[in-house]
Amino acid sequence: MAGAAAFVEADNAEEIMARIETKSQKIESLLKHYKHVEALKTALDGSPPKTLDERCKSANWIVVHRAIMAIKDIEGMLNSLTAEYYDILMKYLYRGLSTGDEPTCEQCLMIHEKLTERAGLGCILRCLSDTTNTV
Amino acid sequence: MAVVDVHRFAESITCHAWSPDLSMVALCPNNTEVHIYKSLSQDHWERLHVLQKHDQIVSGIDWSSKSNKIVTVSHDRNSYVWSLEGAEWVPTLVILRLNRAALCVQWSPKENKFAVGSGAKTVCICYYEQENNWWVSKLIRKRHESSVTSVAWHPNNVLLATTSTDGKCRVFSTFIKGVDTKDSKAGSPAETKFGEQILQLDLSYSWAFGVKWSPSGNTLAYVGHSSMIYFVDDVGPSPLAQSVAFRDLPLRDVLFISEKMVIGVGYDSNPMVFAADDTGIWSFIRYIGEKKAASSGSSYSSQFSEAFGKFYGSQSKSTTANDASDSRGGVHDNSITSIVPLGKGGSPKVMRFSTSALCRMSSPDNNHRNECYISTNLK
């Protein structure tokens, strides 16, 4: 904890890309089975915030985006999401809002409203102030 | 039972400190002066002194309890030590050798030194040189990458914790030959070299504020601007750190009211209580004001919430002044910038504390509370 942060992720960008590939396949299959929440959780898991590689971040974003757009029941989804996911989900929501693409923004805004109710302003704060771990 | 006394001294209070007998309070009403008020009765305060020496806003005040000296630091890069001679406060300039504003100050537990955090990425440790009748400042120039927002002394009078806007909390040794005596059972040689960094904590990704040591010096607590509060137990070669994320707006300052309970104050205008349970896990308990306790969803779960609910369910809050308290249910209208204990420094438990806030109906308030573990009489 103190001092150098342990880089659990492999520094190798290729390895991360490969992992994202397998993740996206898993998510596709989960979505086919209407397991939307599972899909989102899988997408958010292992998000590579510590890599500086833009490609990895973009690749992961595409996967998360897919899962976010598939969500229909927001309340239910947030009910089954545990607290650790709130912060990372919020970061992806802001990334979604920054795209300016209408359906994405609409979906992201709806989730944002509900998520803020649950997680509070602190969650947004953590998103905004964290410039080292961006998504 | 938490009882709150509210006193309005000014539009906005930058910082404040209490006299040793708690009858007087020195505060900066967001200008270049320090006003000292004496309490004549429950609600009646009389302004006794106005200390005017600084050219810019006074950013830190500390009043030593044994030697009865006030130290003030200001954005004008100066510091004055005020001594009461007769009925007047006489200032002594302390040349800090800073080229940026001084942000915070604290007397050491033995009151023979004081530490000043500054925007010049340095910490000044000032001590009194008897031969020259002069306060000398020694700078810790290394390590800090940005402004030092807060300083806190360990009970052993040598270790100093600092927080900075680079997000890190550091512990330094401020051993000064001639002022500090080498403790025979003291730690490593690093602890006896001035300016030596003992520990650096890299828990926060954003600005860090408000560091404090627990009464025994075993635990450190500080806050990050990302609505997080960090607790570090067993500060030393292998510390145990915990990050607690909470729902609402960030905190600015914290106070240990006992070894296992911390009050945080900040942008929510409502002090928050954090406590450690028996296993040593810290978590958010509740707000002090009449506000529904936040869900423990965002902080790691605690078994305490229910127990506290029973004790504080019948809380009655009486305010003496009439503020338009907003929907948050707190007494302050705007963000609270500092929290100061009322009582002898170094005592293991704090029964009362005061908070001061910015702008619009800001006021320091005394908050009396009964510790729920031990039944003691209110002072």
From TrEMBL, chain B:
* Single GO molecular function: actin binding
Q: Spell out the subcellular localization from the entry.
A: Cytoplasm, Cytoskeleton
Main location per UniProt?
cytoplasm
- What SMART domains does this protein map onto? WD40
User: What InterPro entries has UniProt attached to this entry?
Assistant: ARPC1, WD40/YVTN_repeat-like_dom_sf, WD40_repeat_dom_sf, WD40_rpt
Which UniProt keywords are given for this protein, alphabetically ordered?
A: Actin-binding, Cytoplasm, Cytoskeleton, Repeat, WD repeat
From the UniProt record, list the WD repeat ranges. 51-92, 141-173
What is the official name of this protein in its record? Actin-related protein 2/3 complex subunit
Which source organism does the UniProt entry give? Arabidopsis thaliana (Mouse-ear cress)
